[in-house]
Amino acid sequence: MTLGKCMRKNWIWKPVKSHLIDFDETDSIGTIKCTVESSSFSEKEMEEASKFKGFVESESSAQKLFFLIQGVANRSENLAAFNTLKSQLESSKLESADRAIICARKAERQISTIRCGAK
Q: Which value, in Å, is the radius of gyration of the alpha carbons in the chain?
């Protein structure tokens, strides 16, 4: 198995100015959405990712993992959830991950985005 771009770059995150993940009007402030992409995740990687907080079961191929953590009224809890998801990805064995994007809804029209790996 070849290492994906995220693992090769030691999960270095960069801020992004554009919104790479869409949010619905019903998503509350503090909601976090994340996608992790690969040419193909192994069964072992899929199993590990399913244990992360916010993992969303997907019927699509084994090329994308989705995470959704609903925001709560407490800003510090939202920040803790964001940092937890980010650290879980960094310490995971998702060796084939080529791209990861984490977006957080900070305000009604303000979304913060970071990415790792390929553009």
A: 14
Beta bridge partners of 35: 66, 101
According to DSSP, the β-strands at 99-107 and 110-117 are antiparallel
> Which residues contact residue 83 at a Cβ distance below 8 angstroms, ignoring those fewer than 6 apart?
none
pLDDT tens per residue, range 20-50: 898 988 889 999 999 999 988 888 998 999 9
Query: How many CB atoms sit inside 10 A of residue 98's CB?
Result: 18
Task: Tell whether the torsion through CA atoms of 7, 114, 81 and 43 is positive or negative.
Answer: negative
* Sign of the dihedral defined by the CA atoms of residues 95, 62, 36, 106, in that order: negative
**How far out from the chain centre does Cα 20 lie?**
11
Strand partners, 23: none
Q: Average pLDDT in the 83-108 region?
A: 92
